Amino acid sequence: MSLTPDDVQWVAHLARLELSAAERDTLTRQLSGILDYVRQLEAVPTEGVEPLAHPLPLHNVFRADEPTPSLPVDKALANAPERKGDFYGVPAVLD
């Protein structure tokens, strides 16, 4: 599927991008090449191929999720630039 410069201009418009004529021509060639490559990949027979998330045999390397006591409020807010009671003080963003 070859893209036309008008197709690329429309996508740029949707993305709120301004492209020069040279950029549009370059992107037309590059995006058409990407779509042609994807078309080649679609032609690869994948019947009987088991889906996988990663090509290497990985296992969970995280520690077990075990409940532990939370930080005390005073320790959690020790480095807060401003404190309001038991909460972080932040500037208001709404009236």
What form results from the Cα inertia axes? Answer: flat
Task: Estimate percent helicity.
Answer: 25-40%
CATH topology of the domain at 5-42, by name, is: Histone, subunit A
> Distance between termini?
53 Å
Task: Supply the number of helical segments.
Answer: 3
Mean pLDDT: 91
**Low-pLDDT stretches:** none
Helix vs. strand class: mainly alpha
CATH architecture verdict of the domain at 5-42: Orthogonal Bundle
SSE string, helices as H and strands as E: HHHEE
Neighbour order of strands in the largest sheet: 1-2
CATH class of the domain at 5-42: Mainly Alpha
Rg over alpha carbons: 27 Å
Percent strand: under 5%
How is the main sheet built? 2 strands, antiparallel
Task: Explain what this protein looks like in three dimensions.
With 95 residues, the chain is mostly helical. It has a domain at 5-42: Histone, subunit A, CATH 1.10.20. It contains 3 helices and 2 strands, in the order H-H-H-E-E. It has helices at residues 5-14, 21-42, 73-76; strands spanning 83-84, 87-88. A two-stranded antiparallel sheet has the order 1-2. A hairpin with a 2-residue loop joins strand 1 and strand 2 (87-88). Helix 1 crosses helix 2. It is flat, with a radius of gyration of 27 Å. The mean pLDDT is 91.
In short:
This protein is mainly alpha-helical and 95 residues long.
Architecture blueprint of SSEs:
Blueprint: H1 5-14, H2 21-42, H3 73-76, E1 83-84, E2 87-88
Antiparallel strand pairs: 1-2
